[in-house]
């Protein structure tokens, strides 16, 4: 009975405790709501600034829009001499530069007019200059030292999937590296800024990817990334202990992004000599200050997305980031979120540099299979949200829809229609986009929300342009002793050969044999013109192989290399050893010959997605392709019997020791029969008595 | 005697040449029993490839040879591979060494007989010239036609080279050339630390040859010991410095000797180290590495004391212990000490379990590839199967060596105390170790 009573008391106590916990949680919840409200109030003044910016711009934009339409109507643009054009552009740019910074309304008007004029000449030469601007933004005029842009690109893929790419850019003209600390943050995330100034980071690129980008079905992504987590950092040349800084930085980033970046250590870090040059400004290309690491096993999920969203000026409360609902984003074929920090030119002359923070999120929705046979999509269907406003802090906020394959509207139907069209050269291809400017209230229409709807008319979409460069990788061989890594690189260009840089990072437990390296294309040996090989050290550093290979036109180049699988210590295996070990993607970097002229001016206003990799020459563009990561099985010991093995081996050693010890310490003697028990007892008694023994 | 040896050499070279051209030539170099990370030919080629790329071969963890020896090995002469020549050289050196040693043994026996030092009933233990005549040839045959040697040779393992150096060292020691003996011993030590333990038997043999008694009070003993030590250490220094000047870095020290001593590569082999250290608890690792490595060197001093009158048998014992307890053993190492077995065939009557041991060794040799296949390729067995066989194989080797040691000691005992021992009461006695 006593026990029963005791139980009842316990129950009452537990119930009381639970009630208390719930009440507390409720109170805290209301507090949260209050917090959110206060943030919203905070944002309001900033929104005012944005609104004032917008008001100066709206009228220009409508005019520009008219011009755009006009341009579309024009079929045979006049051909002007190129030097004239260049001069003109130059003049305009100079004008733009020499313009005083103060924010006078008449000057703004004037500038806008000039820009428009310049754009008009551009439009006339649309054939020569592939890039056409849509509504001019006014970066040089912004009085603030930082600015923020956001955009979303939606591209219907030929496979029936939808590719959505978010890009957010924060630019800030500040000096992170001066002795005095940067303490006033407006748009730039403070958590990241502090890290950058503490570790003297010059460039930081980090990406988290779930799924593999299928180049042959989907074409090229705007920003490539390997499956898992990738991190590469250029440190300032003032850093003395780069390894120490790298170690700390990875741990800090691991905390910021809730990712396992703390597993980056010397065994998966390399210093590529040529593949990862700085993407921003700066002439330091000494690889000592570069660190590159990939964690192919990293799983990306909500806990990585939330901190990533928090770095945005508007968080996920306004602007395009509202669409990022994790339950939808992660219910997709491919998800990749990245963050790129680098110094870029402030203006065309590149007299001063600003820091650019680019946050990108790429996602491929498999609507075709999940849409119950209907091929149509809308923003709401994809994200279960619609856009209602731009981020008030953003200087530009746009949604682009790729309509290149649909010039006459015969393939699909896009609604609501937009008057704005834009052309951009992306990855050697001229694409046409419908543009929705979110800073323009008219975009949202009567419903105060933008929900684009795309409905296919044709059952199947046309042929896709095959990507010019494409890579594949697999492991050949059977058994757990040896194997062979095959990397295939496809050059689909019909008549141009181009060189590619192949970077392979292989963990130490797959012992590569460099003498088995073969590179063949079209059945012939293709000797790489440059090989940088750093062999691995057991438990210390991975293999690094970089080589420059010329890919003949319209060919497949196969790189093979044999390896041996090592048996590890039992504590070095992952918790699921028979799942296998991941080997990070190979990286193929190339300057691919372009059919259309590329835009070499990186500071000109163009859509964010087309301006990530700096372009040095017009005739080619930079491209990076990641191959599949590999999953390799290693031989495993029996994890359940360390004690048995220690005992048995020690026994064998003891047998050896014992038998030799016996022979070494003893001598041969004639065996005397041992007397019986009675006799021995009698002898003991006799010895005690001092009587001679028997 | 030269004709049978030539014939043997021709047969051995033919077998190897045929195997080199067969499909087995690709299979054998992959066998973990035949090649270890230390002596795989693939790794030598890899080291040379790294050198071609302008990377130090010791920058990675693939190449663990000392450089000056392996670099000339570059396949300039594909018709007859250096490993075949090394095998032939080893066989000839062993042949000459055993021949010379037998002469010494016979001479000693003659003096002892003349001095009537042997008991009368020991006549049947006396070795006759007739039985001793074919021993050198048998030794060469045991080495050349041993499947272990053939496998090792076809795998182009540099183990054959190590064996050749040790065989030359034995030959020089037996011939009494102390300088050459010291140089070859230094060379063997330089290749793989362990032959260091052969220093004691060589010194004992050379002292015996010069009729210098092992006596701490005698200055002549100390003089010769110092002389030999200096020759050994001097040539070792020269070789190490040569390695240094060839690549002008000391990386090879950690990459060769550090690799041998700290056992970082746990690739399965026929030894005791790999699975033990794969399953070892991390904080006991250093302790057990020390214990296992000391174990190899530990027996030198007690064995030298026990066998100070019989340095050649001591050499055999040391080589056997090294090949059992070294960190990366291969079948090539076993072949070297097995070549000496015909030299001790007069011990046959005292061996206790030679049948059992040879059956176990044969069975294990057959089971190695089977269980390897089951574990690595078929996936139907696990590592424990292969490990069990390595344990059994090593137990058999230990029994074989200790059996020969027992037999040798027993024969010596009989030679002083008579073969048919009697108890006090006159009945037939049995010998026991006490």
Automatic annotation (TrEMBL), chain A:
Disordered: annotated span: 52-143
A matching Pfam family: Gpi16
Domain of life: Eukaryota
Name of the protein this chain belongs to: GPI transamidase component PIG-T
Stretches that traverse the bilayer: none
Biological process per Gene Ontology, one example term: attachment of GPI anchor to protein
Signal peptide boundaries: 1-25
Species whose genome carries this gene: Oncorhynchus tshawytscha
Keywords, comma-separated and alphabetical: Signal
Biased composition (Basic and acidic residues): 56-72, 82-91, 114-130
GO annotation, cellular component aspect: GPI-anchor transamidase complex
UniProtKB/TrEMBL annotation, chain B:
GO biological process, one term: attachment of GPI anchor to protein
GO CC annotations on file: GPI-anchor transamidase complex
Matches recorded under InterPro entries: PIG-U (IPR009600)
Cellular location(s): Endoplasmic reticulum membrane
Keyword set includes Endoplasmic reticulum: yes
Residues annotated as transmembrane: 133-154, 166-187, 193-212, 232-250, 256-277, 284-305, 350-372, 384-406
Pathway: Glycolipid biosynthesis; glycosylphosphatidylinositol-anchor biosynthesis
Topology relative to the membrane: Multi-pass membrane protein
Pfam family, one: PIG-U
UniProt feature coiled coil, ranges: none
Main location as per UniProt: endoplasmic reticulum
Signal peptide boundaries: 1-25
Keywords tagged on the record: Endoplasmic reticulum, GPI-anchor biosynthesis, Membrane, Signal, Transmembrane, Transmembrane helix
Entry superkingdom: Eukaryota
Family membership noted in the UniProt record: Belongs to the PIGU family.
Protein name: Phosphatidylinositol glycan anchor biosynthesis class U protein
Species assigned in the record: Oncorhynchus tshawytscha
Origin organism lineage: Eukaryota, Metazoa, Chordata, Craniata, Vertebrata
Gene name linked to the record: PIGU
